[in-house]
């Protein structure tokens, strides 16, 4: 039996993926799963759905619920964190404030949902408190971090605590969209993806054992323009079409490796993001996931998904296995637990301290790389050297933004927040940056952050 705690279990999408995977992983049956959330309503809903799903799949799990984080951590062996402190509403208001100060679509790593609030303060504070509670209550447990910012959060936890931390994201699966667009059979595709979370690059691409980058080059030369005029691209959901967008192709030409998944959003050059028309040119008719059009589509999608789950929750006769077929979801969290607890060796894509996996990155910086997971723990696979231009113009600057965020957070340094904003090409004066920082920290939900950043 394994003790698993899900912190932020009210995240229906993630929690149902976890429960589905546990129910089809018979080697973990008998485990105790503690669902924890501060929202009793969301907690009751996910508990109800979990029990019903177990009955439909005949899975054997012991389910408990609590609104108390420390109770959930007591004797836990694996802790899954999906918490987004404060939700989306404050973030939307912060973006509106930033736009009034001259920052189109707000500030951050060119991704509106990435930090979870200004300077990532609330998320980083929560991550650190969670890890320190784990040091007291379950010091040998693994923390599997899903909530953003994964890069900053896992680096902070691994540096400041003794907790074994793994960051998990599914953005690297973007290679499947690439392979499908190229007309390749996935069973014959083998890729290596490496970098930082939301900044990963296809370091190796094999098809039937041979280098397949020439196939990608051929598609770009002969078929890309036709694809960008196709109904599939023009009418596709923005988070599904970005992988093979003009932005992705141009990034490949600029930096030497093909960007995968969220990289196309968050590591793309600032000049792709100056206004809506520019975004449309690079990301398609919606302007991409993070434009005012694309983000609105996403928020409506989230709302409709929640309503769908509430409808199923309200209808005891509804089939959950029809909504969530009893096959593995594709998320890596439960395979990690199964590999470690039952010594089943797997290679997974994880965020772990570098330890010389990628040349030129300090050992204590968390990187996203393939890793061998087993009863012995987690060992990163050596990646080696990335193209020099990519390192100088993307990787090192992204790493430095991470360091700036963590330095400001750890030292409570308001001036560092301003100086980081001064590097944004939209900033025209120190006063512009200072006034924005002051107004953001003056918001009611940032009262604690305002006291922290002196």
E-strand count: 13
What general form does the structure show? globular
Strand order of the largest sheet: 3-2-1-4-5-6
How many helices? The count is 21
Distance between the termini: 47 Å
- Which homologous superfamily in CATH is the superfamily of the domain at 3-168? NAD(P)-binding Rossmann-like Domain
CATH architecture of the domain at 3-168: 3-Layer(aba) Sandwich
What's the overall average pLDDT, rounded?
Answer: 95
* Major sheet: 6 strands, parallel
**Share of helix among residues?**
40-55%
Pick out its properties:
single chain, about 450 residues, Rossmann fold, 6-stranded parallel beta sheet, 4-stranded antiparallel beta sheet, globular
What can you tell me about this protein's structure?
The chain is α/β, with parallel strands linked by helices. The protein has helices spanning 12-24, 40-57, 69-73, 89-100, 121-137, 150-160, 174-181, 213-222, 224-227, 231-234, 238-241, 246-255, 263-266, 276-283, 292-314, 320-323, 333-342, 388-411, 414-422, 430-441, 447-452, and strands at residues 3-7, 32-36, 62-66, 78-81, 142-145, 164-167, 189-196, 199-207, 210-211, 258-260, 346-353, 366-374, 377-380. Among the domains are: 3-168, NAD(P)-binding Rossmann-like Domain (Rossmann fold), CATH 3.40.50.720; 172-290, no CATH class. Helix content is 48%, strand content 15%. The strands form 3 sheets. A 6-stranded parallel β-sheet has the order 3-2-1-4-5-6, sandwiched between helices. A hairpin with a 2-residue loop joins strand 7 (189-196) and strand 8 (199-207). Helix 5 (121-137) packs parallel to helix 6 (150-160), helix 18 (388-411) packs antiparallel against helix 19 and helix 19 crosses helix 20 (430-441). The longest helix is centred in the last third of the chain and has 24 residues, at 388-411.
């Amino acid at each position: 039996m394994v003790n698993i705690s899900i912190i932020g279990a009210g995240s229906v999408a993630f929690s149902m993926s976890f429960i589905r995977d546990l129910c089809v992983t018979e080697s973990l049956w008998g485990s105790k799963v503690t669902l924890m959330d501060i929202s009793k309503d969301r907690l009751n809903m996910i508990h109800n759905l979990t029990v019903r799903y177990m009955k439909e799949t005949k899975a054997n799990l012991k389910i408990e619920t609590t609104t108390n984080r420390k109770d959930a951590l007591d004797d836990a062996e694996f802790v899954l964190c999906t918490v987004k402190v404060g939700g989306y509403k404050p973030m939307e208001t912060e973006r509106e404030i930033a736009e009034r100060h001259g920052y189109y679509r707000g500030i951050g790593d060119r991704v509106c949902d990435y930090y979870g609030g200004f300077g990532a303060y609330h998320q980083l504070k929560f991550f650190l408190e969670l890890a320190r509670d784990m040091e007291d209550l379950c010091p040998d447990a693994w923390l599997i971090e899903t909530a953003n910012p994964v890069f900053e959060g896992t680096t902070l936890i691994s540096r400041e605590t003794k907790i074994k931390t793994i960051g998990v994201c599914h953005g690297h699966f973007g290679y499947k969209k690439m392979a499908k667009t190229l007309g390749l059979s996935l069973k014959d595709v083998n890729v290596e993806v490496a970098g930082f979370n939301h900044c990963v690059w296809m370091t190796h691409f094999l098809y039937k054992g041979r280098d397949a980058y020439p196939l990608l080059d051929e598609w770009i030369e002969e078929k890309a323009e036709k694809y960008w005029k196709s109904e599939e691209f023009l009418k596709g959901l923005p988070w599904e079409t970005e992988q093979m967008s003009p932005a992705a192709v141009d990034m490949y030409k600029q930096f030497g490796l093909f960007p995968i998944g969220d990289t196309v959003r968050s590591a793309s050059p600032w000049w792709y993001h100056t206004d809506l028309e520019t975004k449309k040119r690079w990301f398609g008719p919606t302007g991409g996931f993070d434009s005012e059009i694309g983000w609105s589509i996403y928020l409506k999608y989230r709302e409709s998904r929640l309503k769908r789950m509430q409808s199923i929750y309200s209808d005891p006769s509804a089939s959950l296995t029809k909504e969530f077929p009893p096959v593995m979801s594709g998320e890596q969290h439960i395979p990690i637990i199964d590999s470690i607890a039952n010594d089943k060796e797997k290679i997974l894509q994880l965020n772990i301290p570098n330890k010389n996996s990628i040349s030129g990155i300090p050992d204590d910086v968390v990187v996203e790389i393939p890793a061998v997971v087993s009863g012995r723990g987690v060992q990163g696979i050596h990646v080696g050297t990335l193209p020099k231009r990519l390192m100088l113009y993307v990787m090192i600057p992204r790493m430095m933004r991470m360091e700036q965020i963590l330095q400001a957070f750890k030292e409570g340094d308001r001036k560092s927040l301003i100086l980081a904003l001064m590097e944004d090409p939209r900033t025209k004066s120190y006063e512009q940056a200072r006034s924005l920082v002051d107004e953001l920290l003056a918001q009611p939900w940032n009262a604690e952050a305002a006291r922290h950043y002196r």
